[in-house]
User: What shape does this take?
Amino acid sequence: MTTPKTLDNRYGSWLDAALQKVPHTRAAILGTTDGLLRAHSTGIDQDSAELLAAALSGTVSLTKAQTEVLGEAATGWVQCILEYSDCFVVVKAAGANVYLAATAAKNADMGVLSYTLDDLVHRLGDELDSPVRTSPIAAI
Assistant: This one.
């Protein structure tokens, strides 16, 4: 018998409320840059949200590396938009080592979605920060 996964999804309702403001949105997650899921909306199950969080952490890493090549500090990254044949994914910096991502259909208003996510980041503020995980071996 396996134990069910538990997630402190305290920000899930905040994600749901933000998505309700933008028609044609599908789901949102709050993830850490090292691939962990912090919260998800009701539009995505926990397993899928964890997979998306892990995958998007790689996107965030690549985007930050590109800012360094372009002469910006790694903190210069603000957001990126991934476009697929039938949807968009908006990934936005949301605090120290944290990002916010939302998926939306192609007919969603991307300007309104980006503004709504930005507003959510500002309202939640420093609560979103996530310390970098360190290896217990590195502490020895």
User: Anything to note?
Assistant: The mean pLDDT is 85. The domain at 12-128 is CATH 3.30.450.30 (Beta-Lactamase).
